[in-house]
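User: I'm writing a short methods note and want a consistent example. For L-serine dehydratase, I'll paste the sequence; you return only the structure tokens, no commentary, since I'll be parsing the reply automatically.
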Amino acid sequence: MAISVFDLFSIGIGPSSSHTVGPMRAARMFVNRLKKDGLLAQTASVRAELYGSLGATGHGHGTPKAVLLGLEGHSPRTVDVETADDEVERIRSTGRLRLLGTEIGSAHEIAFDEPNQLVLHRRRSLPYHANGMTLFAYDAAGTPLLEKTYYSVGGGFVVDEDAVGEDRIKLDDTVLKYPFRSGDEMLRLAKETGLSISSLMLENEKAWRTEEEIREGLLEIWRVMQACVSRGMSREGILPGGLRVKRRAAATARQLRTEGDPMMHRSEWTTIYAMAVNEENAAGGRVVTAPTNGAAGVLPAVLHYYVNFVPGADEDGVVRFLLAAGAIGMLFKENASISGAEVGCQGEVGSACSMAAGALAEVLGGTPEQVENAAEIGMEHNLGLTCDPVGGLVQIPCIERNGMAAVKAVTAAKMAMRGDGSHKVSLDKVIKTMKETGADMKIKYKETARGGLAVNVIEC
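Assistant:
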């Protein structure tokens, strides 16, 4: 199985990769399947049923909105975040849904009664994964035309029922030049070839794209990250969702700008960069899934730290940073999980912290062993992190948590750079521990909004 860095870093819409990006992709896959099978014109009604974490926290994560947009043919990468709410309001006010409405010549309008045809099961789950959804299509006589079940397995990745039992991700049998599925294999290849972690990943990426395409694609991801930070540091007000959480990044940035040399406040700036991204994510803005939306602020923040505070930083370093981060993220995706609904927030913010720590060590000139050590430190000190979003919203504790993890990633990289790369706990062992910890974690602490802060804050 092969995973590209562009699978891990995708441009999408907030507030959640599992609950917004994944369901939008699944709904779009469903209507495209109707079209492919010649069933679209016969479809008179559709129904969507959401289970597990999608059902429990779907409203707070914007899942119904995502499903409606997906059924109309919108993609997370290209949907207009400024008009998306208006599109959903049109569907709800008219009771009409334009299946594949974004495609000229394919749009098919049907009646749609959201309260009865988009059902969130708060206490029911499907067997394969906590984020499951089933979609149905019927003709005018009520005869079933198509039924498909999809699972949003983290980071915007979606598998359908046909892939269940095969693997977590749709299998890609692309032959890579330097395939590795563990940290030990990654280090062995680096030693045998003399290549850095980012160079190993670059050689593997060439199985899909030219070096020029890889570079331009990664720099486009960086530009989207920069734009997200910029927007987050310029917008103020109250975040949607009912908790009345106030945006803080813009006001804090203004304060810091009056306090002199930014180098004296590097940690605070790093925190603000992350919070700016996650405030944008909470508002349904354009973000880069890195590796999830709930953890989308960590890598952009640490990459901003590199560009703004590391002498000699350049675009080559940005590319190497993202490649190294992708190599580490791939290990988490293949050997554990990046889904908060499956393993808690250790799989989201913890994985992002590990990826950012290793990537920063890479561009600071670290050896492959130091990069692996930094990634291990970043994950080790996020083990057991629960996912208990208050009100089911990606706001408390998610926004601050990204800021904390970004600073922790910088610290982890610097700790690793002070050593020679040798350490007692390997990255592979900490990934295995994270997976086992997630399996042992009570379900109420895994993105259900039924435990931890989600309960105690409301009770107070």
